[in-house]
Amino acid sequence: MPLRFGTGAAIVLCLATALIHLLLVFLHVAPPNVLSQRYSQQVNAWVLPLFEQNWRLFAPNPESVNHQISVRTRSTAADGATQVSAWFDLTAVDTSAVEHNVFPSHTTQNMLRRAWTSYQETHGSDDQAHSERAEMIQEYLRNIAVQRLAVQRPGDFEAVQLRVRTLPIAPPAARGRPATTAPDAVETRHLPWWEVAPHGN
């Protein structure tokens, strides 16, 4: 009897969670209405950033630039001197994982790129977070860098810094004309140093 009750309760909980999730995602993608405007804070708290939905599948917006995101660490040596590591290319790791995988995961393809896009949308050129969402996105981007560094470069460090190089993509060649080359201008942006807690985030 207790087993049946527990199983039934678990099924009801799963169904209720699924229905609430569908409702919140529907309100997120639906045109603005009374419900979505009234409960926008609750909807965004549930949907963003893990369940974000958009219409790019149906109306794609191709990228005109590539972002090369690198990270370096700062630590303190035993003698008290500050040590800064060489840059580690996070984008190259993702690119390699996609190129050598027949079925690359969504995480490999989009996590770092979408984290950077969201950071750009929520922060100004001064890299200051002016909202709770901006702070959350900043922590999200930092945690991605820290977690990937922990796998690729084990060791203790106290802070991380990201460097983003924006590389223009050459437009496709028009019929009957030679392909044009992308301009040589490459923008480089250094983000502030972000402290890392001892447990890694």
What does this molecule look like?
InterPro entries: DUF5819 (IPR043857). This protein has helices at 2-29, 34-38, 40-47, 90-99, 106-122, 132-152; strands spanning 65-76, 82-84, 88-89, 159-168, 187-190, 194-195. The chain has six helices and six strands, in the order αααβββαααβββ. The model has no long low-confidence stretch (mean pLDDT 83). By secondary structure, the protein is α+β, with helices and mostly antiparallel strands. The longest helix has 28 residues, at 2-29. The protein has two domains: 2-47; 65-195, no CATH class. Strands 1, 2, 3, 4, 5 and 6 form a six-stranded antiparallel beta sheet that branches.
Radius of gyration, whole Å: 22 Å
Average of the residue pLDDT scores: 83
Shape: globular
The total count of strands amounts to 6
Continuous helix count? 6
Distance between the termini: 44 Å
Q: How much helix, percentage-wise, in residues?
A: 40-55%
How much beta, percentage-wise? 15-25%
Order of helices and strands: HHHEEEHHHEEE
Indicate the low-confidence ranges by residue numbers: none
**Helix/strand structural class:** alpha+beta
Count of separate structural domains = 2
Largest sheet: 6 strands, antiparallel
